[in-house]
From TrEMBL:
Molecular function (Gene Ontology), one example: electron transfer activity
InterPro entries listed in its UniProt record: Cyt_c-like_dom_sf (IPR036909)
Name used for this protein in its record: Monoheme cytochrome C
Organism: Dyadobacter luticola
Length: 171
């Protein structure tokens, strides 16, 4: 072992392995303020903690501040949140807090469901993905989703919109 370390070829590798072992050891040590170790936390407990944290973050004060400094306009000219891409609305922060803990906001952005289909999706997530009971926040979440990500008002024929006219110049 000393010949390997003296050689210097594997010095960096052995230092990395030792650092990894130290980090792994620290990870399994109990938290000073808690009776359980960080490795013994169950999935259900983590989900409950996340739900409690979400409910605290999604306060009415956040909902009322619709236009903040990190808002942008998307390609359709709708004012959206710069971080998630969700359309700004009364309950956008509630939807952002409840939904993006588990999945990307892109799943919401690409969907255009009516109220019944959104309810069906929520029930599926509760049944199979361990989504917690939304309680009194379910109605405002559904109202936001149907308002901003409901079915298209215009019929979609499967084709993209025509490209705008381009002005070309001669070479």
């Amino acid at each position: 072992m000393q010949s390997i370390l003296k050689n210097g070829r594997y010095l960096l590798l052995s230092a990395g392995v030792l650092m990894w072992l130290l980090c792994a050891w620290v990870q399994v040590q109990p938290n000073p303020g808690s009776k359980t170790s960080s490795m013994s936390t169950t999935t259900e407990t983590r989900a409950e903690k996340a739900h409690a944290e979400v409910y605290v973050r999604a306060t009415p004060e956040q909902n009322s501040s619709a236009a903040s400094s990190d808002t942008i306009r998307n390609a359709q000219g709708v004012l959206v949140d710069g971080e998630s891409g969700l359309a700004l609305g009364e309950n956008m922060f509630l939807v952002k807090a409840q939904c993006t803990i588990c999945h990307s906001s892109k799943l919401i952005l690409q969907s255009q469901f009516d109220r019944d289909k959104w309810i069906e999706r929520i029930r599926w997530m509760q049944r199979t993905q361990k989504l917690w009971d939304l309680g009194e926040t379910e109605k405002p979440i559904l109202d936001y989703l149907v308002e901003h990500y409901g079915p298209n008002k215009t019929g979609f024929d499967g084709r993209r919109l025509p490209l705008p006219a381009q002005t070309w110049y001669k070479l």
